[in-house]
Amino acid sequence: MLDLLAQTGLNAVYAASYISLVAVGLVLIFGVMGVLNFAHGELFMAGAYAVVALYADAHLPFFVAVAAGLVFVGLLGLLMERALFRPLKDNPLGGLVASIGFLMILQSLAVMGFGVRMEHIPPVTQQVIEFSEKVRLPVARLYVIVAAVVLLTALWYFLKRTRFGWALRASAQDPEAAALQGISITQTARIAMFIGAALAGVAGALTAPLVSVNPHMGHSVIVTAFIVIIVGGVGSLEGAVIASVVYAVVHTFVTTFFDGVIADITGLSLMLLVLIVKPTGLFGSRERA
Amino acid sequence: MFSRFSRRTFLKSTAAATVAASLPRLAAAQDKVIRIGFLAPLTGAVAAWGKPGLDGCAIWAERINAAGGIKLADGDYQVEFVSYDNEYDPAKARTGATKLIREDGVSFIMMLGGDTWPGVQPVADKTGMLFSTLLPSDLSPETTTLIAPAEVHPIYNVTGVEWLAENKPDLKTAVMCAQDDALGLPSVATYLAAFEAAGIEMLDDPLLFDPATTDFAPVVTRLIANDPDIVCLDTCYSDYVHPICEQLFQQGYKGQIISCTADFYDQMIAKTSEEFMEGFVFQFPDFDDPALNADTINFADPNGFYAEYNKRHPGQWGAVSWEYASIMDLWKAAAEKAGSADPEAVMAAMKDGGKGDHAFGQADWWGSELFGIDNALVGDWPVVVIEGGKARVKAFKSIPDWYARHGDLLVKHMTAYDQMWNQRS
């Protein structure tokens, strides 16, 4: 039983890692730009396809492909900011609808470029860390966990300790006051969009060898991310990380000890419970921040 | 189900399909043409059970047309496939069926079925058009113009379990996982009946997961927690079979695996190891298998078909690559017997005598107990095992024989999962 608990705990840590990367990016975009980016799951998908193209097809080293995926999806974020969200900045609903359109464009591009089928990505490594006969952590999963810790720590440092980070937070808390202080709202929006998209892209790139990569893989990711940011509090980065951990632990343990369908119901029930008890989410405030 | 499908391969296959589709039109200037509708998902998550079938049909049509076409009472006809991508959406399937009948004048429509059939059934009722499905769970007493002549999913899965019990009697316990959908649940009931009939104990209730699941580590952790002799993957889509097998490998499982499908098993071997995949049991052979050259097989030149398919679509061979083509063999024989492409006449000729030539041997029109109508063609089905990195047919086993001995168990489990025809809404 202890082995089962330990293995389930490791599974939960992995799940929390990639979910938090996606959710934090989504929260960052919403916090600074006030737009719910429905195409965020497809940015995750784009990161995965970057690994397909560069690692599986072009045989570049895996981490080169991941880095390229991060930059590529970050640039996609910049494109979205310039082409979709900036022209529609006074119309939050317009941004949301535009992101749904962009979602469909990205899916169609993936189908046109790679076809409809699951992509085969060779394993990065088959090494496994064996804690006991029944408690094992594949090294490919460890990469995701380490990357999540490093990137989220770096993001925290950037937001809390750098001038750009302060500008970003100021823009998120009160765009008009920030503008009066000389902060470029357009510039902070670009930075937020690049970082938010890049986080989704790197999550997709890192997990690509571990999941089924196909043009529709973003759907389940965005659903999970929305649940997480509602539980954590829309606009709260800390809330997104903590809610990712809570959701991953609950979902993983319920899947293991009951089944996956009950786990999904439990996850949604958790979201409903939070909405009823604390509609702003566990760490959210009435104003976005 | 899903595999490497590079941009180049996609473009090549699309170009080839376009050329293949246009060739019969050129021929139409000189010859009479029969149009056959192909109404299946060609894009979207379920496309892998549509597109490879259309690719197989293109090869079939070229072969038949080169051999003189379909010989009816009023002359020889070239055959042409008209495809419509229903994206596995019932409303689009209904639109497609109407378009294929009214605008394209097709004589027969092949479908994947499943979730799309309810959208099409009113069109079938109104027009009397003959339809085929790969999923006999679409059958009911009301579906009088719908046939399931290629595969009787999931009933044939009993043959794999029966073979396992006969050949590896030391395997005594099993666990199972499945996606919670219209494909997974009847298969769960079938495997439960098969394991019970074989005297293999289920260590746990089947572990159901949401079809949107992407991380299978928790599912696998639970599956192997009690050291089962057999892990059964039910009729999981390849999107699930591949990561589940990879997780089984990474979490140290060393027992037997059985699954309905193992599409692109070479990729599974690449992600695990040849040793890990050795002995993996499933139900769909590669058509280069020597066992398919037996006289009892009713699929013309299976080895040549497989070679041609792989030449045109490298690495894309899957469970449905041959099935739609085999349905066309059956339809062609019935149309030639009837001397007409009229749906009613073809259906009558096809079911004449209660027997038909299934790809894997002569079979019976069957199904009144399970489906409420004898519109499923059921006979022998192959049991396939991976040996030395290659799938090989180990036996052909009779589904009707198994049902005669254990049909009560199947009905019991199907009823428990609300999968009998009179329980479906």
From TrEMBL, chain A:
One Pfam family from the record = BPD_transp_2
* Name used for this protein in its record: Branched-chain amino acid ABC transporter permease
Which cell locations does it reside in? Cell membrane
| Record flagged with keyword Transferase | no
CDD domains associated with the record: TM_PBP1_LivH_like
Which keywords does this Swiss-Prot/TrEMBL entry list?
A: Amino-acid transport, Cell membrane, Membrane, Transmembrane, Transmembrane helix, Transport
Concerning InterPro entries, the annotation shows:
ABC_transp_permease, BCAA_transport_permease
Q: Which PANTHER family match?
A: AMINO ACID ABC TRANSPORTER PERMEASE PROTEIN, BRANCHED-CHAIN AMINO ACID TRANSPORT SYSTEM PERMEASE PROTEIN LIVH
Q: Which domain of life does the UniProt lineage start with?
A: Bacteria
Membrane topology of this protein? Multi-pass membrane protein
Q: Name the lineage.
A: Bacteria, Pseudomonadati, Pseudomonadota, Alphaproteobacteria, Rhodobacterales
Instruction: Please report which protein family the annotation says this sequence is part of.
Output: Belongs to the binding-protein-dependent transport system permease family. LivHM subfamily.
Q: Write out the transmembrane intervals.
A: 12-31, 62-80, 92-116, 140-159, 191-211, 223-250, 257-277
From TrEMBL, chain B:
Q: What are the UniProt keywords, alphabetically? A: Amino-acid transport, Signal, Transport
Q: Which domain of life is it from?
A: Bacteria
Extract the InterPro entries matched here: BCAA_transport, Leu-bd, Peripla_BP_I, TAT_signal, TAT_signal_bac_arc
Q: Which PROSITE patterns match?
A: TAT
| Record-annotated Leucine-binding protein domain positions | 34-388
- As given in the record, the signal peptide range reads 1-27
Name the family: Belongs to the leucine-binding protein family.
What name is this protein filed under?
A: ABC transporter substrate-binding protein
Q: Which organism does this sequence originate in?
A: Sedimentitalea xiamensis
